[in-house]
Amino acid sequence: MQTNYDIVVVGSINMDLFFEINKMPALGETIEGQAFHFLQGGKGANQAIAAAKLGNKVAMIGCVGQAAFGVLAVKNFEKYGVNHTHVYRVPDYTGVACVTIQQSKKRDNSIISVPGANKRITKDMIDQAKPIIKKAKIVLLQLEIPLEIVEYVIEYCYDNKVPVILNPSPYQTMKQEIIQKLTFIIPNEIEVHQMFSNHSIELSCAQYPNKLIVTRGSMGAVFHDRMEFKIIDGIKVPLIDTTGAGDVFLAAFASEYIKSKQIEESITFANICAGMSVMKIGAQESSPTIEEVLYYIKHNQ
Ligand code: RIB
Question: What's the confidence (pLDDT) of residue 78?
């Protein structure tokens, strides 16, 4: 069995139900939506697919249910060449997310996700996947699976010198000693405020130089390099749907970092990929292929 992967993702797998609406209904109100889409999602799966589309060898570790959504999720990994040996079918429903895109809010989204099978991942499943985790060039994690499993993977990666990135979304309080063991932690602006309550983004980044990278949507991303606070601008594109843009950023950052080991270059690449992904609806179909990214770079520099 092949055990060498560029990127190993441990995390969530969802089916996303998209509702395009003019405005959110009030309590007790029924409204008519404008469009509906039924698309693959889940932060973990989104990151795995985005990394594969950028030309990496990727393996996914996670859980899906027994019914149709689980079957579709596995077929989707096959479609994009993501190894799913450690995607387990468990007696629960596959995670689902309700994504609303509001016209009145400049097409911004709100997401309610219900974890289902994502909560069924166990330490035993991680133990079975250790041969591929140990040889990964980098491991990606988010917080849509139990925190104790996330911590277990971080400890294992740290002990085995495997670089690991955490996307702390949806945010949960993390122990200091766990954060210390991460190579990078990449929250968005809302999550970084949840992490550091009243600190400014600049002060927060200064606490974790070269480790904490904050994504800021169309404004790109920021970090502190021990000398100064750095702002790396995003690209300007027509906005259709931001769902999964943070996942594309994470995958693209990892993809570039394992090659260049340069944080700033990796953020620039990730900004381009995440920016390109907001021009289409959905979290996975919208993420760019490496050919599309290279074409964009060639024609926009
Ligand atoms: O980051 C976007 C993802 O968050 C969606 O695909 C949805 O499934 C939720 O998990």
Answer: 98
Neighbouring CB atoms inside 10 A of 160's CB total 14
Element (H, E) at 15: strand 14-21
How many A from CA of 242 to the centre of ligand 1?
A: 10
- 3-state SS class at 52: helix
Whether 159 is catalytic is no
| Torsion on CA atoms 274, 278, 284, 286, rounded to nearest 10 | -110
pTM of the shown model: 0.96
Distance from C-alpha of 7 to C-alpha of 121, rounded to nearest angstrom: 19
Q: Using one digit for the tens of pLDDT, what is the confidence trace for 198-233?
A: 689 999 999 999 999 999 999 999 999 999 999 999
Gap between the Cα atoms of 41 and 68, Å rounded: 15
- Given a cut of 50, the residues of the chain with pLDDT beneath it are none
Cα 55 to Cα 21, 252, 255: the distances in Å are 35, 10, 8
The preferred substitution site among 9, 13, 14 for testing ligand 1, maximizing ligand atoms within 8 Å of CB, is: 14
Ligand 1 binding residues, C-beta < 6 A: 12, 14, 16, 41-43, 46, 97, 111, 113, 144, 243-244, 246-247, 283
Gap from CA of 285 to ligand 1 centroid (Å) = 13
CA–centroid distance, 227 to ligand 1, in Å, is 35
Which domains does the chain carry?
Answer: 7-11+43-62+81-92+123-300 (3.40.1190.20)
